[in-house]
């Protein structure tokens, strides 16, 4: 989708600091980091949110979660721990409507989240 920010980043037409990629997945630094480590992991294929995923997306979702764990390792996060978040819809504050998983770490994370 040419009017989707993350499709453009996946296509390379908008620059991003990519830290991991494979056939299905791209991971890049968040432009407004909320923690010392803050990476976004997306599928290259346009999907709006987890809420719009179904059976055909089963493999993609698994691949994305495994990519999140790879990203965490690349950032040196597993020893202290990290958080994976996917905001879905208005109450959760989703602002980019191409499904993405935030990998956050490098500081203690509060619970419950705000
Ligand atoms: P959401 O609010 O939808 O859960 O997360 C969207 C994320 O995308 C935000 O954390 C925001 O900082 C990030 N973001 C928005 N625009 C850009 C951009 O142009 N480049 C990058 N790397 N991140 C972006
Ligand atoms: Zn998209």
> If you average the pLDDT, what whole number results?
97
**Chemical compounds bound to the protein:** guanosine-5'-monophosphate, zinc ion
What is the helical fraction, as a range of percent? 10-25%
Largest sheet data: 5 strands, antiparallel
| C-alpha-based Rg, rounded | 14 Å
Strand numbers in spatial order across the main sheet: 1-2-3-5-4
- How many angstroms separate the termini? 31 Å
Number of E strands: 5
Structural class designation: alpha+beta
The ordered string of helix (H) and strand (E) elements is HEEEHEE
Number of helices: 2
Q: Which residues form runs of ≥5 with pLDDT under 50?
A: none
Percent of sequence in beta strands? 15-25%
Shape: globular
Task: Write up what this structure looks like.
It is a single chain. The N and C termini lie far apart (31 Å). The longest helix is centred in the middle third of the chain and has 17 residues, at 58-74. The chain has two helices and five strands; from the N terminus they run αβββαββ. The chain has 114 residues and is of the alpha+beta class. It has helices at residues 5-11, 58-74, and strands spanning 18-21, 25-29, 37-43, 82-85, 101-105. Strands 1-2-3-5-4 form a five-stranded antiparallel β-sheet, covered by helices on one side. Strand 1 and strand 2 (25-29) form a beta hairpin. The chain is 21% helix and 22% strand. The chain is globular, with a radius of gyration of 14 Å. Bound molecules: guanosine-5'-monophosphate and zinc ion. The site of guanosine-5'-monophosphate has 13 residues, from strand 2.
